[in-house]
Amino acid sequence: MSQQHSRIGVVTVESLQKIPAVARLTSHIPPAQFGRYLAIGLWNTIFGYSSYALLTAALTPRVPYAYILAGVLSNVLNITLAFLNYKWFIFKTTGNYLREWLRCLLVYSGGIALGTILLPVTVFAIRYLTPADASAPYIAGALLMSVNAVVSFLGHKKFSFGATSAAAAHCPVRAGISSES
Questions:
Q1: Where are the domains of the chain?
Q2: Are 87 and 93 in contact (CB under 8 A)?
């Protein structure tokens, strides 16, 4: 059956890592972790974009430039869900919920600020360059979300969930080794 799958084009983590650009980007990521990241990332993207679209649709009749407020509100909700998914299923860290959640907020805060600035510009550009007037906020949200997904993974791997173990390695007391022993 697996030979039949390979003939009909099933994409696997291993096949993605045979692409030179993907291999360079993922060489420091264990394959199982990368596979979990892709699966959780797909879920986070679907949930994140759905909450943004739902809030945009709900707020548009009530608030001017509702897509901006929807972007900010959905980001807080989506960051919290993404944090829990990353913590439990990808990086598998224990404890430190508040510290790691705050670090996740820091990683994402740059994306939120940049997204808040770029969203109106991107909406304007889409409206100006295409006939997509009413759907421009949705298209812009999807474009900016994809860029943020790639950048944020690296921040989470190195800072949100990786800095604790790195700090422990450099600090003998935190690692459980006292300089007095």
A1: 28-170
A2: yes
Amino acid of residue 54: L
Residue with tokens 């972790």: 33
Q: What is the pTM of this model?
A: 0.56
Task: Check: CB of residue 122 under 8 Å from CB of residue 52.
Answer: no
Q: Cα–Cα distance between 51 and 53 in angstroms, integer? A: 6
- Write the Ramachandran bin of 19: left for phi over 0, alpha for psi from -120 to 50, otherwise beta: beta
pLDDT in tens, the chain (181 residues): 444 444 445 556 567 667 787 777 666 666 677 778 778 888 988 998 899 999 999 999 999 999 999 988 998 898 899 899 989 988 888 988 999 999 988 888 877 788 888 899 999 999 999 999 999 999 998 888 777 776 777 788 788 887 554 444 433 333 332 333 3
Reading the block at residue 45, the tokens are 């993207």
Q: CA 123, CA 132: separation in Å to the nearest integer?
A: 10
> How far is residue 145's CA from residue 57's CA, in Å, rounded to a whole number?
18
| Buried-exposed string 149-179: b where 16+ CB fall within 10 A, e elsewhere | beebbebbbebbbeebeeeeeeeeeeeeeee
Residue 39: both structure tokens together: 């699966």
Q: What sign for the dihedral angle of Cα 29, 35, 164, 25?
A: positive
